[in-house]
Amino acid sequence: MLKKLSRSIREYKKTSILSPLFVTLEVALECIIPLYMVTMLEAIKLDNSLKNIAFYGAILLLLAGFSLLFGILAGRFAATASAGFARNLRKDMYYKIQGFSFANIDRFSTSSLVTRMTTDVSNVQMAYMMIIRVAVRSPIMLVFSLIMAFVINHKVALIFLALVPILAVGLILIFKFVDPIFNRVFKKYDAMNESIQENIKGIRVVKSYVRSDFENGKFSKAANDVRWDFLKGEKIIALANPLMQFCMWSSILLICFLGAMFGVREGIDNSSQISSLIVYASQILSSLMMLSMVMVMISISKTSAKRIVEVLDEESDLHNPENPVYEVKNGDVRFDDVEFKYDVNADRRALKGVNLDIKSGETVGILGGTGSSKTSLVNLIPRLYDATGGHVYVGGVNVKDYDLDTLRNQVAVVLQKNVLFSGTIKENLRWGDPDASDEELERVCRLAQAHDFIMGFPDKYDTYIEQGGSNVSGGQKQRLCIARALLKKPKILILDDSTSAVDTKTDALIRTAFKEEIPDTTKFIIAQRVASVQDADKIIVMDGGSVADIGTHDELLARNAIYQEVYHSQNKANSQEEVNEVE
């Protein structure tokens, strides 16, 4: 796990090394200063002239100044290294997720991925900063201060050997109880983020059904679960402070008592030694306290690190072959006894025994009830998923033999959930072709019946689209997405119920434009309306993951019960008359 995370340090290795180096120098000076104070106070006792005081004071000021400088540099390098490490970590996770197949994404919820890239990375960033600074500082401070205390007065310094184990055992016990609490809190973070995401994504549904109170209650419960776990953990951690204060003041009391006792017995004034030993007492105990905080932070980040590594270790189940094919000859599509499961261990097959042969340039309609695997069928063409049985061929070549980018550049998909990104209409359309000219943009928008409503906007093609396309209607969004897909000039175009929000007249105009303007492109049209597919060269009727029938509109209307039922339900007034004509 550490090896995997350390790869994200990269260009920040230098600052990651410089930070502990300057921390060491800072600690060395901080430990030297109390020892120097003994020498300074003894010298001033012998000669308390202003010149002598100024001389020793200047040296003390110089030591303190360098300690401050080294501390500032250590802090700056630690902040730079940790922030850079977090940036690289987020970038590595983001690029990794971009390479995931749909099957990989299905294994992680969106809310969990958001938590991993935000809260989890922030925790690891904080832990890394503490490791390269505080975790280096505390042990060095502890060892140096103990050595210096024994150099000053080895008898009084024995107090530390008695109190340090008490504080150490107390901190270990606190750490032991806190660790499992922070291990489970991140699952509750996922639940809280999921509640927020669902509420924002479905805000119109929530308001339409007046479910705001219910959603508020659901979020409050998720937030309170996180709050109570953190509260419980923080209460336990809070015990560390009084424990440290007890050990510190006990050590100061014992130092004063033993120092005074030895001073009276030996007849010497050791007030300077007592002052320095008190400073070392605070340094030793505070270093242990800081070390415990590091351990707590590492405990919190350990779970976060595991969750991050899970994403980084996840391998896409879609890979390029050793010698990929870089050219798609045409839009021929063939399914050869294809089977598909969303999970290889699942009992139910989403697709079973699918055999299809579609020629380049044909228009193919796909009809079927909800859950009949219409979308699952077309997802296998651009390898959004891989078939778990049988083979899928495009242009006479198995899709698994193609270079993924080459295949997907020739298969344009307009999915059920239309997505527009924040930016102008032009910027959204050019996802299909970054180098497309304004004339090409206008051409595909005319094909998709989008040009007229775009020209109705004040800024026309420079109109700004809000995130998710929230400032355009569902039908406008669908037509923009179709235009974007056409801009790729694909050999295969898949419209997955992507004209459901447009009226039948516009739907007909889009299909007519496709037939006249892109006759060589193979077109798959998944639809709920018979009117959207009745002019297709072939209509595939799906039922329960299998192909129930294939034929033209008239053939299916004459023989297929599923097609007849759908048609009759949508054309009650004229259905009987048309059936009689066919007979």
Structure overview:
This protein is an alpha/beta fold. Helices cover 64% and strands 10% of the residues. The protein has a 6-stranded mixed β-sheet. A hairpin with a 2-residue loop joins strand 11 and strand 12. It starts with a helix and ends with a helix.
**First and last CA, distance:** 70 Å
**Biggest β-sheet: count, sense, barrel?**
6 strands, mixed
Helix content: 55-70%
How many β-strands, per DSSP? 12
Mean pLDDT, all residues: 82
Low-pLDDT residue spans: 575-583
Output the structural class: alpha/beta
The number of distinct helices, counting runs of at least 4 residues, comes to 21
Concise structural overview:
This protein is α/β, with parallel strands linked by helices.
Give descriptors for this structure.
single chain; 6-stranded mixed β-sheet; disordered C terminus; alpha/beta; 583 residues; 12 strands; 21 helices; 4-stranded antiparallel β-sheet; elongated
Protein topology:
Blueprint: H1 2-6, H2 13-46, H3 50-98, H4 102-107, H5 110-132, H6 134-152, H7 154-201, H8 203-208, H9 212-238, H10 240-266, H11 271-313, E1 333-340, E2 351-358, E3 363-368, H12 374-379, E4 389-394, E5 397-398, H13 404-409, E6 411-414, E7 423-424, H14 425-429, H15 438-447, H16 451-455, E8 464-465, H17 474-486, E9 492-496, H18 504-517, E10 522-526, E11 538-543, E12 546-551, H19 553-559, H20 561-570, H21 575-582
Parallel strand pairs: 3-10, 3-11, 6-9, 9-10
Antiparallel strand pairs: 1-2, 1-4, 4-5, 7-8, 11-12
